[in-house]
Structures are given as C-alpha cells and as structure tokens.
Design brief:
By secondary structure, this protein is an alpha/beta fold. The chain has eleven helices and nine strands. It has two domains: about 1-35 and about 85-125 and about 175-259, TPP-binding domain (Rossmann fold, 3-Layer(aba) Sandwich); about 35-80 and about 125-170, 2-Layer Sandwich (SIR2/SIRT2 'Small Domain').
Length: about 260
C-alpha cells in the first residue's frame, strides 16, 4: 500500500511504539543524504571503472593496483561523511530499546558514527583494510594516503607481504555466512521491519524483508524509487529518508507523551 501522507508516518509510529522486535534494514539511499554517492547511479564509481573481481585481485598485482586506484578515489566520500537525520533517528530508537539492530548493505560506517551499537554489515566496511593472508586489520585512511603518495599498493605490516584489501565484500566474494545467518534470524524474529534506501534487487540481502513477512511481521519500505517488494509492504513511503524518519520520530514522541 503506497503511503505519501503524514497519516502513513503516524501509522508507522504507532506500529513502532507497539512492536516487540524491530529491525532496520538499510541500503545506499540512506547515505546519499550524507553526500555519499550511490555507486550504481549514473556517474557513480561502478559506472566509470571496470569491475575488479576478488579472484583477479588475489591473483594479479595489476588488478590489485587497479583496485587500490578505484578505492582511493572513492575514499574521501566515506572519510568526510557524517550521519544524517535518518541515521540519527534510527540510533535514537535503538538507544531507547525500540530497535533490535540494524542490518545494512552500506560500507560507510555511518550507523556506528550515529551511535548504533548493534550493526550487521552485510558487505563489510570501507573504514578498515584487511590482509587476505593473515587477516590483520588496519585503519583505511593512512593506507589510502600511502597509495596516493607513492602509487604503490601497500603491503601488510603484520605478515610482511600480505595482500591488503578493504574489509568489504568484493565482486565474486561471498557474503560472510555468520553475518547473513544472524541477519536472517533477526528478520524472522521481527514483527516490524523497516527497509530503507534499498533497491531490494541484490540478493541474498534483498530477500531478508521477505522473511519478516513470511513470519507474520509488518514491512515498511522507505525508498525514492519503486522496489520489487512494494506489493508485500504494509506501507511504502517515497519521500526523503531523513525527513520521513524525523516525522515518524516526532509522531512517536507525541504517542509517548500521552502514554
């Protein structure tokens, strides 16, 4: 059911107030309001560079250099971004005990910066680099600066010659099984799921909202464009994410004032 009005946000606030288990699932759309581009959109990084697959990265020094070149160009978008009103509203709900946790397709770490402390990152994080040989982790910033200064792919300081890659899931690399399993459990337990800023086309992540509906929960989709799951949703809101979540939060505060 498509909801565009204040009444839809009021209904969602009531559901949020009454829900036992709430899970928030987010995609790139929530971070565009923080200035982070949607990589799939025209002009995004994925439209300007060739894809470096994981197996190619592992096997080829030239592929690793291309990978670091692409990642270094996009690093500033993450490093300089700050949480927006949408991130802050979700963090407020989690701090109040209303949200069980956040499942995100994003690699920007903005949910954590906003104050969320239980976040499942399906695609990893661009804020860290991990050695593919010894699994040591490092902050991404200094290594990106090193690459930009020298044009040389950094090597692992922990094991000496390990292959360093951002701690994200690359093309051709599987999602971490433990993270996906936990996300699935959360969605099955939820009686209310928010799907926010996701196109809901990339599986298996896009199948998670279906789990909530299959176990009898409500689904609220907040996204700029239509998604394949709109027909399953109890509410679809195609407004700005920050404004929408702020409005829901204001309705929630009003409900709490009368309880």
């Amino acid at each position: 059911m498509l909801g565009m009005s204040n009444s839809a946000e009021s209904d969602v606030a009531t559901w949020l107030s009454n829900a036992r288990v709430v899970v928030v699932f987010t995609g790139a759309g929530i971070s565009t309001e923080s200035g982070i581009p949607d990589f799939r959109s025209p002009g995004g990084i994925w439209t300007r560079f060739r894809t470096v697959y994981y197996d190619e990265f592992m096997a080829s020094p030239n592929a690793r250099h291309e990978y670091w070149h692409q990642k270094s160009i996009g690093h500033g978008d993450f490093a300089n971004a700050q949480p927006n009103a949408g991130h802050l509203a979700i963090a407020k709900w989690q701090a109040a005990g209303r949200v069980r946790g956040v499942v995100t397709q994003n690699i920007d770490g903005l949910h954590q910066l906003a104050g969320c402390d239980d976040v499942l990152e399906l695609h990893g994080t661009a804020r860290h680099v991990q050695c593919q040989d010894c699994e040591a982790r490092f902050d991404a910033g200094p290594l990106v600066e090193q690459f930009l200064a020298t044009n040389l792919v950094p090597k692992c300081d922990a094991c000496g010659d390990g292959r360093l890659k951002h701690a994200t899931v690359s093309f051709g690399q599987s999602l971490p099984t433990n993270v996906l399993t936990r996300a699935s459990e959360w969605c099955q337990q939820a009686d209310l799921l928010f799907a926010i800023g996701s196109s809901l086309v990339v599986t298996p992540a896009a199948d998670l909202p279906r789990l909530t509906k299959q176990t009898g929960g409500r689904l609220v989709i907040i996204n700029r464009d239509p998604t394949p799951l709109d027909s399953l949703a109890d509410r679809v809101i195609r407004q700005g994410i920050g404004d929408t979540l702020t409005s829901i939060d204001q309705h929630l505060d009003t409900l709490n004032a009368f309880q």
